[in-house]
Amino acid sequence: MKMSLKVLLQLVGGIGMLIYGIKVMGDSLQNLAGDRLRRLIAKLTGTPVKGVLVGTAVTTIIQSSSATTVMTVSFVHAGLMTLYQAFGVIMGANIGTTVTAQIMAFKITDLAYISVAIGAFVFLLAKNKRQREIGAGLAGFGVLFIGMHMMGDAMSFLKERQDLFMPFRYHPLWAVLAGTAVTMVIQSSSATVGLTMAMAAQGFMPLNVAIAFIMGDNIGTTITAVLASLGANRSAKQAATCHVMFNVMGTLILLPFLPWYSEFISHTSSDISRQVANAHTLFNVGNTLLFLPFTRPFVNLVRRVVPDDGMVKVYGAAFLDRNLITASPAAALDALKKEMVRMARFAKSMLEGCRAAIVNGSDLEAREVLNTEKIVNELTHEIVAYGTLIGQKGLSEDLSFILNSCINGVGDIERMGDHATNLVEMYEYMRDHNLKFSDQGIREFEEMFSLVHQAVAMSIEALDREDLDLANQVMALEDRVDEMEKRLRARHIDRLNHGKCSPGAGVVFIDILSNLERVGDHAHNLACVVMDLAKVRG
């Protein structure tokens, strides 16, 4: 085998081990953190500064800025985070990913083998999932450094080819473009930084070229967020654009000052690998400090580049992003719940259309109810399918409990829509047979409808806000709905017996009361979903 081929295979193998080690370690840490990551991102990103801190912390934990930004883009798509909040997290993700470079700058290859051995034994002898994740994380940590060592050995054979990077020394923009291209291809900014550190350590990549290379790496890593935003809504595309523009603008600002920046970095350590890591860290921290005071103007600029489309999506799901299932199943459940709320509001609008049709004799409202039923049915299928995909991710017991409760809630919302359709059919029957309710019958229908509508509206708001007090109020309303249905049924039968209402209209009235009472039951069940959420989330 020729030496050049052997070197190439060793280099490629080293890159592969580095990427694999980072992924295994990051996945293990993410699984150990569990739902806490979702809560950290969702609850603590109210200001840009908090967003930066959260983005830094999360990326440090999961060892992947791409995973953090994809998660953030998905959060924006799902309506769980605003673009303003997302930009803070994206800036923090850029800082968090530099921790990986700082770790890789350590020379601990011998300890890496021990880490792999210990991790493998812990994984094989583990008695529970947590122990397996700890073992996998230790093994991944070791594999990361073994990959770095393999790359370094491969690079040692290229010392005599220092001329390879001479053009980049005088044309740093080419180095930026090369770093961008490499990261786009291997889909790992940390691997590109590791490769750069290995080349610099062997002495054939000058520091200024290495710094330009990692500046390009910062741009190349944005491709993951861009790909994640394809097929997503306009807000998600804006979030991905934030990432691209932030990294490109930061690079363009620093590039003219590269000679002075390289000189400064050279004094931060005697080890060139550490110098590269320091350059990566200081560049991203400095870029964040530069843009942080101008977060709102920057976000407004992004909205000019990628304008809001001004369209409200009606058909199909608005918040279900499949990228979120892989990035964070817990966050995907939040998106599912948000879509449930949207679906429930469609069902509520159907009930309101039924009232207008029955009270005002509106054929237009009746047709609108039937059109909205198609939306509700489509959302039912999409939400259940999305929930099935989430369930395939090996959820914790708590998340499985929430998922099952939410899917049951989707069934209740669909049944609300079905009962609204039944009410429209009753209206059409009365219209076609020229049947009318008495004035007393209309008043009693409005009384019953008002109470049921209140229960439905409150159950939806309780679900949206996860408000336990509001859910308890819905429970109390259910008893009132049941009591009212019995009372109005008795009154109506009395009117029938005294000839104050036609038999045909009387039968329809009883059916309407029955359907409204069942809608109240489903509102009660939706409130139970809120209680299930409270049990798990406290």
UniProtKB/TrEMBL annotation:
For whether the record's keyword set contains rRNA-binding, the answer is no
List each copy of the PhoU domain by range.
Answer: 341-425, 446-528
Question: Which ranges of the sequence are coiled-coil?
Answer: 460-487
Print the keywords alphabetically: Cell membrane, Coiled coil, Membrane, Transmembrane, Transmembrane helix
- Compartmental location: Cell membrane
Query: Which Gene Ontology CC terms are recorded?
Result: plasma membrane
Annotated membrane-spanning segments are 7-26, 75-96, 108-126, 138-158, 170-189, 209-232, 244-262
Q: Which domain of life is it from?
A: Bacteria
GO aspect biological process, one term: sodium-dependent phosphate transport
Matching Pfam families, A to Z? Na_Pi_cotrans, PhoU
Instruction: Provide the membrane topology annotation.
Output: Multi-pass membrane protein
Gene Ontology terms, MF aspect: sodium:phosphate symporter activity
Please state what the protein is called.
Answer: Na/Pi-cotransporter II-related protein
Species source reads Thermanaerovibrio acidaminovorans (strain ATCC 49978 / DSM 6589 / Su883) (Selenomonas acidaminovorans)
Q: What is the lineage of its organism?
A: Bacteria, Thermotogati, Synergistota, Synergistia, Synergistales
